[in-house]
Amino acid sequence: MDKDNALVVFQGKDIRRTWFNEEWWFVAVDIIAILTESTNPSGYLKDMRRRDEGFAQGWGQIATPLSIETKGGIQNLNCVSTKGAFRLVQSIPSPKVESFKLWLAQVGYERIQEIENPELAQDRAKEYYELKGYPKEWIDKRIRGINIRQKLTDEWKKRGIQEQRDYAILTNEISQATFGVPIKEHKQIKGLDPKFKNQNLRDHMTDLELVFSMLGEQLTTEVTRKKDAQGFPKNAEAAKEGGAVAGRARVDTEQSLGIKVVSGENYLDTPKKKITKK
C-alpha cells in the first residue's frame, strides 16, 4: 500500500510516521520525547549514542532519514521501523517502555489485518486520503490504481520476480513507456525531491495521470499473462510493451485535446482541497 505522512497517537501524544518499504517508520525523536519527557529529544538521542557504543555503531542500520512534514516544511528526519523502535527503546530507562512496546505490537497487528483482509487496507487507505484533503473522485481513482498495482505485483511474484530492485526497474519501464519520462524525471517535473524516498509520485498525480498509470499497469498485466512471461528479462519486455500501448493512447489524447498529460501539478500543500501548480 502506498501512503505518505501521518500522525499516530500514543498516550495522548503525537508520533509522526511515514510509509516506506511497505511498513510504518516512526520519527525517532518523537518516541524519545514521549518516553523521556525530555525538552530536548535530539540532544537526548546524541547522549544515548555517546553512552551506548553498540547503539551508536548500529545507528545506521536502526534509523533511516525520511521526509517528514514539519512546521518549517518537509525535512529529512531520522525514522525507525517497528523493529528499530524496539531497539531504540531498549536504551531508554522509562516506565513507559513496556506500554509503548504493547502499542507498537498493536500497530503491527493492524498491518497484519490489512494483509489478511485487503478490503480493510482499502478502507484505511481511503480514510487516510480523505483526512489529507484529497477530492473524492481522485481518491476513487487512487484506490482503483492500488488494486491494479497489486494484481500486477502478484503476477510478478508468480513469475520469479522477488527483489525490490527488480520491481522498481519494471515499474520504471512501464512508467517511462507510458508517460515518456522516467519516474525520477516525472518527480522532478512535479517539484518532488528524489532524495525523499517516501514522496510517492502517485500521491501527487492528477486524475489524468492516474488514469494512464492504471492503464499502463493493467495492460502490462494482460501482456504478462498472455505471453506467460517468466523471469526478469521476459517480464521487462512485457512491461515495455504494456507501457508502450498506454503511451500511444497518451500521445493520441495529447494531440486530440492539445494538452500535456505529464503535469507539474502536485499535492504538496495537502490537506488543502485543491491541487497546486508548480
Structural write-up:
With 278 residues, the protein is α+β, with helices and mostly antiparallel strands. The protein has two domains: 5-116; 118-257, no CATH class. Helix content is 60%, strand content 13%. The chain contains twelve helices and five strands. Strands 1-2-3-5-4 form a five-stranded antiparallel β-sheet. Strand 1 (5-10) and strand 2 form a beta hairpin. Helix 6 crosses helix 7, helix 9 (164-179) packs across helix 11 (207-227) and helix 9 packs parallel to helix 12 (231-257). The longest helix is centred in the last third of the chain and has 27 residues, at 231-257. The radius of gyration is 21 Å and the shape is elongated. The model is unreliable at 1-5 and 271-278 (pLDDT under 50).
Blueprint of the fold:
Elements: E1 5-10, E2 13-20, E3 23-27, H1 28-36, H2 41-51, H3 53-57, H4 59-62, E4 63-70, E5 73-81, H5 82-90, H6 97-116, H7 118-132, H8 136-158, H9 164-179, H10 183-189, H11 207-227, H12 231-257
Antiparallel strand pairs: 1-2, 2-3, 3-5, 4-5
Helix pairs in contact: 1-2, 5-6, 6-7, 7-8, 8-11, 9-11, 9-12, 11-12
In short:
The chain has 278 residues and is an alpha+beta fold.
Q: Which properties best describe this structure?
A:
disordered C terminus; elongated; disordered N terminus; 278 residues; 12 helices; 2 domains; single chain
